[in-house]
Amino acid sequence: MKNTLRNIFHSPKFVIGFIIFFGLLAFTLIYPFFVAADPLDMVGQGNFFKPGTYVSVQDTVDAKYYTLNIQAKSSNLGDHIEEKDKQDMRDWLLNYGEVSQEELDAADDNALVVLWLEHYDEKAKQKGLLASKKKAYVRLNKEIVKLASDADLIIAVENEDGELEESKSVDSKQYVNTKDIANQRKLVLGTDNFGRDVLTELVQATKVSLKIGLIAGTVATLIGLMLGLLSGYIGGLFDNIIIFITNLFTVIPSFVLLILITYSVGQNARGVTLIAAVIGLTSWTWTCRSVRSQVISLRNRDHVNLSKLSGHSMIRIVLTDILPYVASYVVMAFILQISSGILAEAQLSMLGLGPSTTSTATLGQMMNWATMYSAHLNGSWWAYFPVVLVITLIAFSLNLMNTGLDQVFNPQLRD
Asked: Which H or E run includes 121?
């Protein structure tokens, strides 16, 4: 046993897959100790907030200020300008500001403001432009200059008469230490379409999907192993019946069968455990056929015949004289069944047939939500890309582990 384990952990592919898989598993187990928030808690009143650290604006205004010799520059001037005004700015720069179309196409909102401040001149020749439009451009320029200026921000409070009075002002050199702000939340992966913390939700979803894969893999492997052992050893009519049933499941695409079963049980009954069990019940066939072929080649070996002559029972012969010889293959089949179970759940959830639950999420459900709310179209990559990456890493690590085991146990693949 020690020798076998030593050989397994000397396989580079198995070790890499092992590290990736159990690293993900360890992260899902450790993360809740540091962030105990509900994974489905709606922390944002809106959808698809960008990743970053969010602090309370009220706390920032009331916090202690520190004056630093750093001149703050507004990085979002374009957010304060209406789209119509931006288009007017582009038209003026193109027609009267000697700015090329290529420069305008490459400029974002802030770069557009910079181009405007550099090139706009109310005294420039503006042939064909109405006087009212010229005045409109002058007013627009004053607003942009004001936005870009270093004017103090006035904070006003309501007095006893209901009128606003200046309380204090904040200039661009005043900063706040984030340690002074109690109400802040770091959203490493932003929020999803429901305003939920994507990272916390992703950790919980990974844990649930691994649970589904483990249950589905266990069910499929046990059914395939049991039927394969009995079919290969007993043979005859029993073998024909098992092969007939296996062929039926093989002819009908397992995913189509899976869709039909999950749809028929109804949305309210589709829990995590039920979905995992159904996946396992529809994916045991190839394990059964492979184990059966292995057993057929073993049942007439000398040590098996010796056990038969000794009067040992069929159960004992199967468990002690045949199963140890196929155990390595069963472990590899189990690993692949876990991977296929996770991928099957993701496919079902993308079709809206995944687990129906309000207390947790799965990787497939997160992909489904991101697709339904067009995260891939509006640039909200954090809502779907980390999910795709986790699914890829899980499948990749499990397949690497399987390949490493195959190289250890299969003499034809050894170097």
From this structure: none
